[in-house]
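From the methods appendix. Each design record in this collection lists the tokenized structure first, followed by the designed amino acid sequence. Records were kept in a plain field format so they could be parsed without special tools. The example shown here is representative of the layout used throughout.

RECORD:
FOLD TOKENS (200 positions):
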């Protein structure tokens, strides 16, 4: 199988971290490509009509996207435990929260990197950051015990999302207002799957 991803994509990182956690890195070739909403790479367009990474190309099967589908497919292939029956809906909601932080973080970067300078709007950036801090507030208030439990896809999504925010927004302080989340992330970030998937 071949994974089309981007070297700094937090969604792609989530999938590669899952490969590490499931012991599946030898089963999937990882190919980094550069694509943006205004310049779509032809290889990703062929695999995903939305033109977004990540996409998983399977031998003899249709390509899979997006990261949520790919992660669940890989877990099923490996007979993994990243989607525990006993707390499935909470786990998926936690994953959605991590993915939403990624979406808002990617949107902030596109605004400053892709939009012409005279069309950029601080109000847009501020609104995306407000979504991120609102999600962090919810994680701090309601999700710490789930985050501290057995590993699941929700934790991997949130771990990759917070790492992406640190990577792209190093000057924005979020840790002081979210001390439990900050401590959880510091520990989670030590996992081998996180250490081995750092963006360059
Ligand atoms: N919901 C998608 C989001 C993927 C996504 O936004 N990928 C970005 C890179 S981080 C992308 O490929 N953007 C190019 C585009 O929007 O055309 C997923 O979970 O895979």
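DESIGN:
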């Amino acid at each position: 199988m071949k994974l089309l991803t981007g070297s700094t994509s937090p969604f792609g990182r989530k999938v590669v971290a899952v490969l590490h956690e499931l012991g599946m890195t030898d089963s999937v070739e990882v190919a980094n490509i550069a694509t943006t909403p205004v310049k779509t790479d032809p290889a990703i367009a062929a695999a995903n009509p939305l033109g977004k990474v990540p996409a998983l190309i399977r031998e003899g099967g249709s390509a899979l996207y997006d990261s949520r589908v790919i992660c669940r497919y890989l877990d099923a292939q490996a007979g993994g435990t990243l989607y525990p029956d006993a707390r499935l809906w909470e786990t998926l909601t936690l994953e959605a929260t991590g993915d939403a932080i990624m979406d808002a973080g990617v949107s902030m970067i596109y605004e400053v990197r892709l939009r012409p300078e005279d069309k950029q709007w601080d109000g847009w950036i501020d609104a995306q950051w407000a979504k991120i801090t609102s999600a962090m507030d919810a994680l701090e208030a309601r999700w710490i015990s789930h985050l501290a439990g057995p590993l699941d896809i929700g934790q991997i999504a949130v771990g990759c999302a917070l790492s992406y925010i640190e990577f792209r927004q190093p000057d924005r302080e979020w840790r002081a207002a979210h001390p439990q989340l900050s401590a959880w992330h510091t520990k989670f970030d030590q996992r081998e799957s996180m250490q081995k998937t750092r963006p360059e």
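APPENDIX NOTE: The pocket of glutathione is lined by residues 6, 9, 11, 35-37, 40, 51-54, 66-68, 99, 106 (CB under 6 Å).
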